[in-house]
Amino acid sequence: MKKILVLNGPNLNLLGTREPAQYGHETLADVERMCAEAGAALGVEVECRQSNHEGVLLDWIHEAGREVAAGRMLGVVMNPGAYTHTSIALHDAIKGASVPLIELHISNVHARESFRHHSYISPAARGIIVGLGVKGYPLAIEALVRVSS
Hints:
Elements: E1 3-8, H1 20-23, H2 28-42, E2 45-50, H3 54-69, E3 73-79, H4 88-97, E4 101-105, E5 127-130, H5 136-148
Parallel strand pairs: 1-2, 1-3, 3-4, 4-5
């Protein structure tokens, strides 16, 4: 069974308590459960990871690239959090590792502060899902499965 890696960046461990009007009341554990259920329904294994540290996320993207190249992984669904707007390193890792990636945001970043309108990740992503709340996670998993087949 092939795998999809779901990566969550900084502050996403605070889901459910951080700005619930913006991000909802679901916790990261709720999101991970939704992702596992979506994967099971689609016949793929889903592994979820979260880090507040950019270098850890980079290492996981590199690892995913090796797994994709070996035929064991379809790719990555990633909510890079605030690194979306600051991290050229994540952009370079996605491209350098040749990993298919769906960029995901819970809120509609384009309807928020202007500094959130630019993404360094988008040009390296296979696709983008924004503004659908945590329901975007299963959709991103499904999208990655569909574009990989």
